[in-house]
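Table 4 source record.
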Amino acid sequence: MPKRLISSLDSSLERWLPEKRLFLRSDDATRFLRLRPATQLMGLLGGGLIFGWTVIASSILVIDAISSGSSDEQMSHTQAAFEERLEQLSAERDARAAEALAAQNRFTVALEQVSKMQSQLLASEEKRRELETGLKVVQSNLSEAITERNDVKEQLQVTDGDGMDDQARTEEFSVALDILSGELRNTADARSEAERLAEEASLKAEELRVERDQIIARNDEILNQLENAVTVSVEPLDEVFRSVGMDPDDVLSTIREGYSGQGGPLNPISYSTSGDATLSREETKAKQIIVTLDEMNTYRIAIEKLPLAMPVKSSFRYTSGFGRRWGRMHEGVDMAGPSGTPVYATGDGVVSFAGRQSGYGNLIKVTHELGTETRYAHLSRIRVKDGQRVSQGDLIGDMGNTGRSTGPHLHYEVHVNGRAVDPMSFIKAASNVF
């Protein structure tokens, strides 16, 4: 039955794929291979499948490479935009702080002017009271003198000369009364002017107070934006260390121990006697922002010390991940590529081992800060030596097939405090930072 089907298939395909014969001739004999239509069809289908698989695999590698480049570029643009916005907010905060200080100074000057005017007004009022009291005394004395004069006129009939003396005395009292009345009017006018100036100064002080409150409110808004921005920026940095199995508090403590220098002259402290609760709250918030910025900067320093870069920059394929494999623990990730593909250091550090080791083949170990170590195995060539200091991105070796390996690839490991961790956690953490 199968032969009949094959014969029927050959007959159907004979029109498009006629039978071919491949002759093999030697010195004393000639042989030939018969390629039936069904055989030719199977060969074409097999070649088409191989070609299609090659095209699909190449497309996947190209798409991965393009996606990786686009993601890195986007993260770089995002980081640059965030830093630019942070600088703008800092500049605006400084400008608003300067405006608030200027408004505070103008408000203080206005208060001093109001105080001086109030003092002048009080002095003018005191002088007016003294003049009123003096005027009352003079009026009382004048009234008594007039009464006395009238009594004298009634009782005594004196000569014309005596009448002239009494008239002169009356005129003197009248002149004195006119002088006192003029002084009283001048004092009243001065008091009115002082009241007007005091009212204008009070209005000006109120305007300055409103302006100062507006500036302080705007400054507080900017401080809130800065506080939110730095808080949001610290959270992913904190998550980076937790994702790779490191305690963020221990990392910050270690970094601060290495960056703890202080100095400078010590000058006497000057204290303000005026005081301002609003400014004190702003200063407290600004100090908290500075503390958060210091924490973020400390995280940045720590991240620079971690091996977060990719060990392979050329096209490659992940062939095995971190975890159990074939009943044993696979403590790294495998990145397959052509033999001789460059391998780069993923962080700053010192080469602690460069040589051959059983199972690993040609192996490089790099010790980094914060208790981390990276390993690069199965290399075809080692380009560094023991004790050599390397920087992130330095070429340290070539991908190969040495040791226990089924083909050219890089076996990449990351150890934290002597314990192997998943290198993909470091690679993914890098995408949240850069």
